[in-house]
Amino acid sequence: MDMTAIVLVVAFFTLLLLNVPISFSIGIATLIAMLMNIDFTPAVTTIAQRMAGGLDSFALLAIPFFVLSGMIMGRGGIAKRLINCALALIGSLPGGLALVNVVSCMLFGAISGSAVATTSAIGSFMLPEMKKQGYDENFSAAVTAAASTTGMLIPPSNILIVYAIASGGVSIAALFMAGYLPGIMVGLSLMTVCYFHAKRKGYATTDRLPLNVVVKQVAAAIPSLFLIVLVIGGIVGGIFTATEAGAIAVVYSLVLAVGVYREVEVKQLPDILLKSAETTAIVMLLIGASTAMSWMLSFENIPQNISAFLLEISDNPIVILLLINLLLIVVGAFLDMTPAVLIFTPIFLPVAMQLGMSPLQFGIMIVLNLSIGLCSPPVGAVLFITCAIAKTRLDKIIKPLLPLYVAMFVVLMLVTYVAWFSEALPAAFGL
Predict the structure, then answer these.
(1) Residue 30 falls within a domain, yes or no?
(2) Among 48, 15, 33, 55, which Cα is nearest to 298's?
(3) Structural domain includes residue 7
(4) What is the mean pLDDT of residues 339-364?
(5) For residue 2, what pLDDT is reported?
(6) Which pLDDT score is estimated for 413?
(7) What's the whole-number mean pLDDT along residues 276-302?
(8) In the predicted structure, residue 412 carries a pLDDT above the cut 90
(9) Is residue 385 one of the residues assigned to a domain?
């Protein structure tokens, strides 16, 4: 690694430690590194061009649409109906409320596409209810934080769209289908931990509901869940693109929230539009800055140097892929998912492909890896939201998080070393 690359890395992490926002840390570090080779004006111009070029993608138009549809669904009473549906189906099992928490996070995460929104919507309802039923508040917070990340894999997922762009053309439809099995596996692994923890602690179970009540609660949630069928079915069936699917999701969620559930009033729409615009702007700034840093890394041949270094360590694919996973887990604990995918995909994807891994499998691996980072200290965004809702401290939920981390890591290893989990569904649908 030459001096320019060292300056880039040192400047970036120094800015992060100084609590500079990630997008600005990326951009400023890239500028500092570039100034070592060229003058100020050409450096600024080059960064601006690379940022603009990184945003010049039709596929990226899907992100603001899915962000807006997620905002509308989040305000539209969707979380309450999904929780009631899960309660009706599995609430009477040991650890029922914890299981409901996980299932609700999976369903709402798939609809909203946001781990932060899932944490806020599901956590605000489930955490007080679990505390009322005698669950340890730190365990409840840990479950919510871990489960809220499943929506990053279960489509429609904005981060999978970002990876499709970073990888240079992996099909978004194939990625969406590839995320289902691993996402469900993560959810089931978390539910297994919750089940045995509840059995050991002797948490109370809820009464089994009458069949007519179960049918009513499930029926109330079907319109919300149909959004997933509509979006994924249309994309996989070739009826519309991911971007068009995002626009359709906005229209459907608007009709559902305003016209059917009537949880959102017309006068609230300007505020929802403003919030979605703010979120989209943050995401796009991250994408633009990360694209510039990714270009700088490629210009300095850092991906090639890291690839050569990893392949020199060992010729055993198992060892190298384990090293990549461990590195990404560390990265995910410090860096937001979007810049991490844009920066590290060009670095590690060529190595993975040399070892026989397809870009599709690698995409699911890196997103699952970074999802673990979302609920890992010190930067994991969902941890701080969960702690605020549960009114507890970060250090108190680390211990109950450990078995959940283990469960997620086991699924990560299965996804890493068994291609079938990522490629079976796309192959079945001819993607």
Answers:
(1) no
(2) 33
(3) no
(4) 89
(5) 66
(6) 95
(7) 83
(8) yes
(9) yes
